[in-house]
Amino acid sequence: AIWVLALVARPYTWWRLCLVAAMTAGMVLAFAVPFLRTFFALRSYVAASDVIAVVIAAGAGIVLTVFLAATGRLPGQRDRGGARQAGDPAGVP
Fold it and tell me: What is the pTM of this model?
């Protein structure tokens, strides 16, 4: 989910980077603080399951990024003529 947020937040500005960092910190805290783990009903760590989940998530992130880049839909990506895509802020490199 953090990777999808990072893709959608492109082109990066200071506040978008702060948003991605805050969401990442919140996710880490939710897993690290026992009260938050209980509140969000997160299970105990099981190394094998966690490794499998991370590998699957990384693979999905790579496939999504490659697909969006190949189809020209990656947010913040310039088209072949060098122009910004519709919806991108003007003047942001």
Answer: 0.69
